[in-house]
Design brief:
Number of helices: 20
CATH topology of the largest domain: UDP-N-acetylmuramoyl-L-alanine:D-glutamate ligase
CATH superfamily of the largest domain: Ribokinase
Strand order of the largest sheet: 8-17-16-15-14-13-12-9-10-11
Largest sheet: 10 strands, mixed
Length: 520
């Protein structure tokens, strides 16, 4: 399941130490390489450097050193850098102090932002600069900002000057994406060596703009040798973990999926999940539904078999369906429980009993998650590690905390839950996160706000279920999340915020072709 690693700030600090101590790369060389990479990214973004006015705001840490190196490259290429320093020179890190000395020796003014006059000069420069460089804090920020930094950030944000942030926009927590006070609103963020976890999550994601990873001259293998346990879900990871079909394959080898879903008034969820599993490539999909809904599904879903079962008086699958469902599940590879299932007391009892007794691979979504509130202990008894697909509200409810508390430490809390429940959690948000019981965590780089539409989660659950037999062991959640998000992006390019869940299903085939081609 290899992919691009995403170190947390404390991990990145340890990696930096390893680079200096074991590889013998001095810190000042890393800062030099970083500044050069930022300069190249700026040149690519702007299209020219000669004659360009660039406003550089640098802090006293190494993030500021990166910015000062960038200023030197701009100057040497015929640009016009205006350099402003946040903090006093005597507090600079050694690499930043060395580059500050070089700049001043070259005759480039570096104005200390310690007075109203200096701030006014910065405001004037921002008003006529072609771009600004944010090298104030980077990954070094957490907690609260000083008042002078908040004022500075507000000035930069209020200007019409586009901004390139180095590593992480100042004010964004690189661990969580949290913004406690305010943050630089960047147009582009050049993140060095590896992406940072906080760039994927709101509100930090909204401040990041377009992000891109730039090299600083360090072998990528160093992250493979260091225990960084967060990885980006991208097309390469998806392609590497999907099985290629043999010429003699038949439907029984591509995945037999039993979907237990739907209730009166919520037939759409069951239909979307079932169709998504089939469109993801599953060979056989059977929908178990309340008896009175069977005719609806037989008409609506011609490629999907149905299994009418006992229902409650409110049109939900009844408790008496347990034994037939357990017997049916013996012939299937995966059971998807929950989309549109309803919350009748008998239905919830049936779900809990099924989870306890079934030997199938379970994908648990929506109303089936509701049945587990206060009963997460049932998950540890599952014969195979179950996959749960909650959105933030459902995840918070499972943990009996608020969504705000969950967001405050999303990675830590989901990691603890995955370990405690011996389950794989696929937590849906602006960046879907997949966490395994052993602590491995994955974040997706695909998906868009248009996917915030009814049924999108049902489609994801169906895709994950449909991929179980088509992927390397344990990889279905990762491949499913990528395929779902990428399909949403394809649909979003045509439909924008008007896309609906069935548009995502209709784009799944295009993604499967992309992955197949990428794997050749």
């Amino acid at each position: 399941m290899e992919g691009m690693r995403i170190p947390l700030p404390e991990e990145m600090k340890a990696v930096d130490g390893k680079i200096v101590e074991e590889l013998g790369l001095p810190e000042i060389v890393l800062v030099e390489n970083a500044g050069r990479s930022v300069y190249k990214a700026l040149k690519d973004r702007l299209g020219f450097i000669e004659g360009a006015g660039i406003c550089i705001i640098a802090g006293t840490g190494n993030n500021g050193g990166d910015a000062l190196v960038t200023a030197r490259y701009i100057y040497n290429a015929g640009g016009i850098p205006s350099v402003f320093i946040v903090g006093m020179p005597e507090r600079m890190s050694p690499a930043t102090a060395a580059n500050y000395k070089v700049l001043t020796s070259m005759g480039i003014d570096a104005i200390i932002l310690d007075s109203e006059a200096a701030m006014n000069r910065l405001a004037r420069n921002l008003s006529h600069s072609d771009f600004a460089i944010d090298g104030i804090m980077g990954t070094g920020y957490s907690g609260r900002l000083r008042d002078n930094v908040k004022t500075l950030i507000q000035m930069i944000n209020d200007s019409d000057c586009p901004v390139l942030a180095i590593d992480v926009p100042t004010g964004v927590d690189a661990s969580t994406g949290a913004v406690t006070d305010t943050a630089i609103r960047a147009d582009v963020t050049v993140t060095l060596f590896a992406p940072k976890w906080g760039l994927f999550f709101s509100p930090g994601r909204e401040y990041t703009g377009i992000w891109q990873v730039k090299d600083i001259g360090v072998p990528a293998s160093i992250l493979a040798d260091y225990p960084v346990n967060q990885t980006l879900i991208n097309s390469q990871l998806a392609s590497a973990n999907i099985r290629k079909r043999a010429l003699d394959v038949h439907k029984g080898k591509c995945g037999r999926i039993l979907v237990v879903a739907g209730s009166r008034g919520m037939t759409g969820a069951a239909a979307l999940a079932s169709k998504a599993a089939l469109r993801a490539g599953a060979g056989v999909v059977t929908l178990a539904c309340a008896d009175s809904l069977n005719n609806i599904f037989e008409t609506l879903l011609p490629e999907i078999m149905t299994m009418p079962v006992e229902e409650s008086e409110t049109g939900e699958i009844g408790r008496g369906a347990l034994v037939p469902l357990l017997n049916k599940a013996e012939d299937y590879d995966v059971v998807l429980l929950g989309p549109g299932l309803g919350r009748n007391a008998g239905t919830m009892d049936m779900v809990r009993d099924f989870i306890s007794a079934s030997e199938a691979q379970l994908v648990i979504d929506a109303d089936a998650l509701f049945a587990l509130r206060g009963r997460q202990d049932l998950l540890r008894s599952c014969k195979r590690i179950p996959v749960l697909t909650p959105h933030l509200g459902e995840m918070a409810a499972l943990l009996d905390i608020t969504v705000e508390q969950l967001r405050g430490d999303l990675l830590g809390k989901v990691r603890a839950a995955a370990f405690a429940c011996n389950a794989i959690f696929v937590v849906k948000s602006e960046c879907t996160v997949v966490v395994y019981p052993d602590g491995r965590a994955y974040a997706t780089g695909v998906g868009n706000p248009g996917m915030a539409t009814a049924g999108s989660g049902d489609v994801l659950a169906g895709v994950i279920a449909g991929m179980v037999q088509q992927t390397c062991p344990g990889a279905a959640p990762l491949v499913g999340v990528y395929i779902h998000g990428r399909a949403g992006d394809i649909a979003g390019a045509e439909k924008g915020n008007g896309l609906i869940a069935s548009d995502i299903i209709n784009s799944l085939g295009s993604v499967l072709i992309e992955i197949d081609v990428a794997g050749l």
